[in-house]
Amino acid sequence: MSSFTVATVNVNGIRAAAKQRSEENRGFLLWLEESGADVVLMQEVRADEKQTQQALEPALEAGWHLAQAPAAAKGRAGVGILSRTELKDVTVGFGHADLGEEIPEAREFDESGRYVEATVASGIERVGDVTVASLYLPSGSANTSKQDEKYRFLDAFAPFMHARAAQDTPTVIGGDWNICHRRADLKNWKTNRTKSGYLPDERAFLDHVLGVWPDEATQVGDAEDSGRNGNPAGDAGDFYGAVDYAVAERALQRLRDGAATQPQWFDVMRRLDPESMDVFSWWTYRGQAFDTNAGWRIDLQVATEQLMQRAQKAWVDKAAAYDLRWSDHSPVFVEYA
Q: Angle between the 249-257 and 200-210 helix axes, to the nearest 10 degrees?
């Protein structure tokens, strides 16, 4: 049986990640060589195309193929795809008519280095070519313009996901989604209810595209979420932390539609492991978050049903020790077959 292994990782700057930091920590390049991945979806590359090619020169010489969408702002964002086989139909940005539906609001993000996709041969019988996409969803920051940007991105990205699912093409969008969907997705959820990444409208966005499974109802605004005194960030529809964000009609429609009852997209790791409470992919560099596993599961592979049905196992490739890391994120793997 042929298998197709995809990894997604926020590299936190490819030039830094590729450097050998010690005899034990030889960086991204050795990890890539030993990863066993067929495709690696990278976020926060933070380099132009020439800089990225220089950083990855040994891998490219060894036969890896690269597609990249750098940000217009130097040293910011940036996404890329590495593949052992040829990448075809490379497209930067989302919401173009040839990608399913023209979404004018998405044009704001065309040069922000947040989305790139390509077609690649999976080698899986009766699946064939698949679309692989790297996403770097804005991180946001409550009570700043960054949160406004994040809400605008969600307004444009939800209809894009609906349009792509309707095309019935095997697709996986891997990346740094910068949102924890459920309480099980971060260690200290209660104290992070007013922090970007766990705000009600962000979590409701994931309800809208992924549904509420394995729960029977949304966790946004439920009794545990609200606690004795209510959620300090309010409820979905309050758009907590916005500064000048004008609530768009698309956002209002998303709220009216609510959580997906028959989702077309699936959080692969959660579907394969519905019960885990301590599997995370990002830990702040501050304090001892990594050592105490006070993390967030914000790096996801979200797949259409054709690939979800082929998912065999998923895992986080967490470094054995703090000083063996080359990013503050750990790669998230899924093997499809």
A: 60
Give me the domain span that covers residue 170.
4-133+150-186+263-336
Residue 87, phi then psi, degrees to nearest 5: -100, 125
Query: Which CATH number do you get for residue 63?
Result: 3.60.10.10
Tally the C-alpha atoms within 13 A of residue 307's C-alpha that lie toward its C-beta.
Answer: 33
pLDDT digits (tens, 9 = 90+) for 235-279: 999 999 999 999 999 999 999 999 999 999 999 999 999 999 999
Judge contact between 192 and 233, C-beta under 8 A: no
Q: Which residues pair with 303 in a beta bridge?
A: 172, 266
What does the DSSP assignment read for 6-47? Answer: EEEEE-S-HHHHTS--SSS--HHHHHHHHS--SEEEEE---S
| Within a domain: 250 | no
The count of structural domains within the chain is: 1
**Per the domain annotation, does 302 fall within a domain?**
yes
3-state secondary structure of 336: strand
d(CA 317, CA 329): 10
